[in-house]
Amino acid sequence: MSKILENNVKHLNATYSNINVYFELKQFTVIAKGKTYDHKEKLKDLGFFWNAKNKVWEISVDKLVERDLSKTFVGPYQPMEDTKKKILEYIEQVSNKYLHDLLEIVFIKGEYRVSFFNSPGAKRYHHAYTGGLAEHTLQILEGALELIKIYPYLDISREMIITSALLHDIGKVKCYVNTSDGIQITKYLEDFDHIIFGITIVSRLSEELIQSDEDKKKFEHLIQIITSHHNIKDWGSPKEPKSPEAWIIHTMDQLSSKIGGTVKNKN
């Protein structure tokens, strides 16, 4: 199998698995399986044709290798296992017990430990693909940590940067869902928006974790950052950032959403 053919089949599966369409190399053709009838127009656009005798959508290998389809898909820049590994490593860098326990519940032990890494970042505008939320989150985290270096004279909490970057969009875990018709929004986005629902998640999980006044201050700071990470009301934030940490998270969120999740997959 040529490298282009191998990559094309790989990227076809990575791109269309969220709508339950799968691709398989069979002798001299690549056939489509799953809910192909529902998405026949997409298959036609890719060059597939209906083989009435075998009752399958297929494309010849020769035609499939004419184009490097991997360059046409928007998707995760790196394998999700690599993104997850980096996120878990950053969590281990947080020594404050309240913040660390909160992150551990969300990303390692709690109900979102799997769904977070499978969630899209949006329906269409940025990081709109499986794993997009985690990729967007890591981009913000790593960019924010670089921004800290520019301001060595400010008392910026690295642990709060890590925690707020990881949790700023946690509300999106239930705002979008992959269906046979692609990414769809849920009632959580319609009724609450991801910021409000994210605040609800963090508040609920923090109830039993806060053990001191210092923990409460960190909780309130974290909530303010989540609340303000879109900066203005027209963009969904009821309040603007107040702290250096909040401004850094907002800035990186803007950058990631504008350029980080709209480029072609380079894998």
TrEMBL record:
Gene Ontology molecular function terms on file: hydrolase activity
Keyword Hydrolase on entry: yes
UniProt xrefs under InterPro entries: HD/PDEase_dom (IPR003607), HD_domain (IPR006674), YhaM_exoribonuc/phosphodiest (IPR050798)
UniProt keyword Hydrolase, yes or no: yes
Keywords: Hydrolase
Single Gene Ontology BP annotation: rRNA 3'-end processing
Ranges annotated as spanning the membrane: none
Protein origin, superkingdom: Archaea
All residue ranges annotated as the HD domain in the record: 134-256
Entry protein name: HD domain-containing protein
SUPFAM superfamilies for the chain: HD-domain/PDEase-like (SSF109604)
